[in-house]
Design brief:
alpha/beta, Rossmann fold, 2 domains, seven-stranded mixed beta sheet, 11 helices, globular, binds S-adenosylmethionine
Amino acid sequence: MLEGQRSGERHRSAIRSAVVWEALQALLHARRVAAGSAGEPLRVVDLGGGTGGLAVQVASLGHQVLVVDPSPDALASLESRAAEGGVTASVRGVLGDASTLGDAVGEQGCDVVICHGVLEVVDAPAEALRAAAAVLVPGGSLSVLVAQRSAAVLGRALAGHLGDARAALADPDGTWGSTDPTPRRFSRDQLETLLFDAGFDRPDVRGVRVFVDHLSGAVLDTEPGAAAALRALEAEVATHPDFMAIATQLHLLATRR
Ligand SMILES: C[S@@+](CC[C@H](N)C(=O)[O-])C[C@H]1O[C@@H](n2cnc3c(N)ncnc32)[C@H](O)[C@@H]1O
């Protein structure tokens, strides 16, 4: 890969995660301020946190993070990543899954649960969300990131895979069949209902990756100022209802009742 393409890909990768990271940072800051203890770390659980990219970022803000994940390989990578980031004392990995979350954390044992890219792959999303609610203190926060159904249809159609687009539109899980690597996707209504039923209120919703997945990295590299402009545009449309509907992912921040 040429250096220009690599740098375009780096821009795309940073833009893809920016909306979620900024919202999560603001939430963690607001919770700290509300607790009246500016220096006190929050207890954060990253369910299905994988290799810990986000866990290490959160720990770098001064919080205590527990990653619960069923993959021993992911947890081994988490350990090295935490060491590289100098946050070994603030990040811990536990082998487990949504069904054993209560054992790992304890009832009302944390302030924030992160659940990103996980509801798509668990056996029972409703049970995973109930488990998250049980380990949170009342008023605690949940950050959920999921793949959005409508985006799968749009993405396949724009790529010229029209049969797959029609299959994803018709499928109750929003997938295009056995070659689709994602087992399940969600609509906004469906996710909000699941959250309410699990004990969460007032979700703050954002659409993530509205345009970035449809642009080539080369555009970002050759057009002066394009990466900064795209980042700003993604931030602006994230809460715009017309554009939220076609975002690749939905990010919801919800409060435990
Ligand atoms: C797509 S990755 C997402 C990783 C990370 N949260 C992120 O956003 O980059 C899905 C993760 O969910 C984990 N996972 C799979 N089944 C799970 C379950 N039943 N409960 C919790 N985590 C699970 C996988 O091991 C993997 O680390």
